[in-house]
Design a protein that fits this description.
The protein is α+β, with helices and mostly antiparallel strands. The chain has six helices and six strands, in the order αααββαββαββα. A hairpin with a 3-residue loop joins β5 and β6.
């Protein structure tokens, strides 16, 4: 639920001008998410949202410009050590199990790593599917991920 809500928050702030937490609570309610201001405050902090100038001298919520680190593998290594429980694979899919609520953060780090063999990731609450192409690259990516756990 938290991951879905946070994805919806990102959708809302990229499609609408949202200036206050109350406006975000109302926009989420329209989308079927009943939340409190305190929950929104935590989500804003976890998502790293910032306020940027908008029209009429207002400030709106936005995603940070470019959150990529100079070496994304350094961040991936830290997130892996702190969050990943297990890594396994079958065919061209690698399955990563994380502590509850951490899959999205790990998947985002994987996405920022820009591995040409990784077509994409799908994150749930505690599980990530990593789709790899070509199939022959799966074992190489798998070994790299296993090494990040050390």
């Amino acid at each position: 639920m938290k991951t879905e809500r946070q994805r919806k928050i990102v959708d809302i702030i990229t499609q609408q001008v949202i200036c206050t937490q109350d406006e975000l609570v109302k926009a989420l309610a329209v989308e079927g998410f009943k939340v409190t201001q305190a929950t929104i405050s935590r989500d804003i902090k976890e998502l790293g949202l910032i306020k940027v100038p908008s029209e009429d001298n207002l400030y709106r919520y936005a995603l940070p410009a470019d959150t990529r680190t100079p070496n994304p593998l350094v961040r991936l290594h830290k997130v892996f050590r702190d969050s990943v429980v297990n890594v396994d694979y079958s065919e061209n899919i690698i399955v990563i199990r994380t502590l509850t609520g951490n899959a999205h953060a790990v998947a985002a780090c994987l996405d920022y790593s820009d591995w040409e063999e990784v077509l994409g990731t799908v994150a749930g609450d505690d599980t990530i599917l990593v789709v790899v192409k070509p199939k022959s690259a799966v074992e190489k990516i798998y070994r790299t991920l296993i090494n990040l756990l050390d």
